[in-house]
């Protein structure tokens, strides 16, 4: 079956909307993927759609090593938990989030949450949160005129000096220097 416009669109956007419902065989590589696979987007004429992994495998496709459509854990309760935590980290990064607080919201022990999250994503919630905060800080520094203190608050730091030290450790340059670099590139 050929991909519908809608399905191909989710592949372009790496959306997980049809994951588990459709499997996409890539004729040029002989690999079968979830539609949201982050590998290089195949040309549309090279995509062959299946409604089960078994059909695709029977047709000669091998499961992708990257998106692991053959991995039964992907849509497991653990993955759901990690997904829920990621949602909180992304939408509430300006709040003083802690492992204890996240665990309380999800009704589980901090130890248990930490272990599950790390197993699914490869990072601890604290590390993941820091990366999300630094990404947003980079964006605000490069694209806005907000003062450093304001940027710090928006990404969850109460003190701008603590923010500056952390930013420098992560980005290699101070927030001020980073902004100047980006500003120069923009002119
Ligand atoms: Zn894949």
Describe this entry's structure for a reader.
This protein has 187 residues and is an alpha+beta fold. It is built from 9 helices and 4 strands, in the order αβββαβααααααα. It has 3 domains: 5-63, DNA Methylphosphotriester Repair Domain, CATH 3.40.10; 77-124, Orthogonal Bundle (Arc Repressor Mutant, subunit A), CATH 1.10.10; 129-186, Orthogonal Bundle (Arc Repressor Mutant, subunit A), CATH 1.10.10.60. The protein has a 4-stranded mixed beta sheet with strand order 3-1-2-4. α3 (77-91) runs parallel beside α6 (125-143). The model has no long low-confidence stretch (mean pLDDT 91). The structure holds zinc ion (ZN). The site of zinc ion has 6 residues, from loops. Zinc ion binds at residues 33, 37, 39, 64, 66-67.
Question: Could you list some keywords that capture this structure?
Answer:
4 strands; 187 residues; Arc Repressor Mutant, subunit A; 4-stranded mixed sheet; globular; 3 domains; single chain; binds zinc ion; alpha+beta; DNA Methylphosphotriester Repair Domain
Bound molecule kinds, no repeats = zinc ion
CATH topology of the largest domain: DNA Methylphosphotriester Repair Domain
By CATH reckoning, the class of the largest domain would read: Alpha Beta
Q: What is the name of the CATH superfamily of the largest domain?
A: DNA Methylphosphotriester Repair Domain
Q: Pairing-aware structural class of the strands and helices?
A: alpha+beta
Helix content: 40-55%
- The total number of structural domains is 3
The whole-angstrom Rg is: 21 Å
Profile the largest sheet.
4 strands, mixed
Strand content: 5-15%
Low-confidence stretches: none
- What is the number of helical segments per DSSP (H or I, 4+ residues)? 9
Overall geometry comes to globular
Strands of the widest sheet, in order across it, are 3-1-2-4
> What is the name of the CATH architecture of the largest domain?
3-Layer(aba) Sandwich
* Average of the residue pLDDT scores: 91
Number of strands: 4
- What's the helix-strand series? HEEEHEHHHHHHH
Determine the N-to-C terminus distance.
49 Å
């Amino acid at each position: 079956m050929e991909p519908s416009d809608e399905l191909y669109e989710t592949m372009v956007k790496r959306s997980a909307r049809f994951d588990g419902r459709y499997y996409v065989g890539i004729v040029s590589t002989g690999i079968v993927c979830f539609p949201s696979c982050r590998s290089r987007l195949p040309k549309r004429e090279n995509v062959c759609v299946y409604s089960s992994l078994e059909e695709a495998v029977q047709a000669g496709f091998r499961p992708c090593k990257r998106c692991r459509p053959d991995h039964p854990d992907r849509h497991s309760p653990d993955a759901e938990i990690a997904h829920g935590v990621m949602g909180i980290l992304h939408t509430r990064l300006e709040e003083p989030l802690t492992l204890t607080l996240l665990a309380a919201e999800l009704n589980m022990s901090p130890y248990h949450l930490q272990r599950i999250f790390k197993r699914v994503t490869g990072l601890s919630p604290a590390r993941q949160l820091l990366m999300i905060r630094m990404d947003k800080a980079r964006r605000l520094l490069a694209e806005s005129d907000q003062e450093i203190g304001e940027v710090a608050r928006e990404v969850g730091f109460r003190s701008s000096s603590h923010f500056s030290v952390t930013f420098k450790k992560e980005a290699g340059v101070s927030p001020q220097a980073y902004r100047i670099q980006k500003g120069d590139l923009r002119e």
